[in-house]
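Changelog excerpt

This revision adds worked examples to the README so contributors can see how folded entries look when concatenated. The first example is reproduced verbatim below.
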Amino acid sequence: MPATSTRERRAVREGRRQQILRCAAQLFASRGFHGVSVDDLGAAAGVTGPALYRHFRSKDDILSELLVSASERLLDGGRTRVDGALGPEQALDALIEFHVAFALDEPDVITVQQRELSSLPPRARRTVRALQHDYVLIWAHVVERITGCGTERAIAAAHAGFGLMNSTPHSARLPGDAMSALLREMAGAALRAAPGSAPAR
């Protein structure tokens, strides 16, 4: 039926878009955004370079969708974990499990997110920063409730926790389950250790 045919075409198109994004993440992570051409992306995705423009307006558009989408998924996932938790302790464990799984499943995206924010067009950069800010606040509010520390310190603790969990593209030397368990244990200990006040100087 025509409706089924339309759905199938849309599914094929979306599948190709996701394939291009996966290839872009791998290439941008290994060579840097400015070291990858449209032809490189097309070759990796199995299409001609010009054919990419059927799916994305430009290489900048590919980077924008890659990083905005990643930030949206993190924020949505973080909100879902906190909303489904029975209390702050359970919320923190759920957040850590979620973020560690994302970092291990998508190390190329993590690498690109860390290195290429400045390469984004201004509008996309503002969007990513706003999404990241909201994601950090989710974590900070949970840490604040557990430790009693102030918001500023909880935000700093959250960033430190991300640094630990996001190190996986460079440090993952154990099998997946073992690395996941190690990161969850270390992140949980680090975030729960955020003191209620800074030491006197």
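The second example, added in the same revision:
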Amino acid sequence: MQIDFEKREIQLKMVYYGPGLSGKTTNLVYIHRRAAPSSRGRLMTLETKDDRTLFFDLLPMSFETQSGITIALKVFTVPGQVIHNATRRLVLQGADSVAFIADSQVSETAANRDSFLNLKKNLEENGLDIKGMPLVIQFNKRDLPNIRPDSEIEQLAAKGREPVYKAVATTGEGVIETFFGLLNLTWKRLNAWHDLEGKFKVDGNMVIDALKRQMSVDIE
């Protein structure tokens, strides 16, 4: 988190992590499309010839609260390929939260495990502890054959502390739920650490509800 007192702006950094081709970029593209033009920045993507993300995507979103504070969300993805580990580690610097995008296909189980262990290691090398990091897990590609069954995903969710979401990012299913689940955890953790609501008179629930309205999401 970064606070710019001159601009009266709080910047939050959210990172989408996971193995190659698990759907990280697809998640960001859908979120960007749903965001109001007034609140979203340009979605920047650097890709290789085989359409895989080489460096990172950056989705800046911002909106002003009733107290006059601007909340700026910077949403990144990291490259999934092993050869780009230095870039993944760099993107994780200063991260406030992480969404781990797993591939639901049974054949990708080992890739998911290796990527999650890599996330833990890269967080540690950035001085961050995965146990204290707001984290959600999304099992993407639920529309494909030969995927891990719902019962197995539910068992994994019951064993861990992290909220688990099921998704089909190509259609948007589960994408918004994952995003707001992560944002809610991010705000709660940072507010507990820094008393953002007390210091800046910003109501976290109102911030999230305002963003949901901008994205035409039902407010519960």
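Reviewer comment on example two: Residues 43 and 59 are 5 Å apart (CA to CA). DSSP finds seven helices and seven strands in the chain.
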